[in-house]
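Predict structure. Chain length: 168.
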Amino acid sequence: MHPVNREADSVMKVHKNRTDRLYRLFIILGGGALLAAMTVDFIAVIGRFIRIPLLGSIELVQVVVGIAGVVAMLVATLHQRHARVLIVFSRFNPRTQAGLSRINAAISALFFLSLAGGSCWLLIEMWSSFEESELWHLPYKPLRFLITAVLLLVSMVFMKQAFRGSST
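Prediction complete.
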């Protein structure tokens, strides 16, 4: 094997290892958030049954489900696993599929960019307020910031897919 090819292969392996570690981190973070939501709901149900309710359980579940949701959007976008109508899509030749995928990615980028814009607007409008949950007093500012940042990141990934094409 040519030395340049070996070097390129080793660079690709390092990139794949980093991507795999990042993917695992996102899966652990999202899965952990879902497990936390399930645990809080379980404790709340048992608490109601034994007449010791967990006050504010809905607030806690909303926060961790928000985290799980944005992590899931990011993972699905990075791995190009968003829903498609494959019955129709699979009938086209590969060149048409590639073109449709690029158009889909561009429209998705605009959609997520508009969501990020609205989230950013809310973040700016509510920045100086002390917005927090009622019972647990959880601040919403970090969650709004996380959601806005991930929406921007998802939009950028879709833009990359629109301009460079599918990496699969």
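Summary: The helical segments are 3-49, 57-78, 86-89, 94-125, 141-164.
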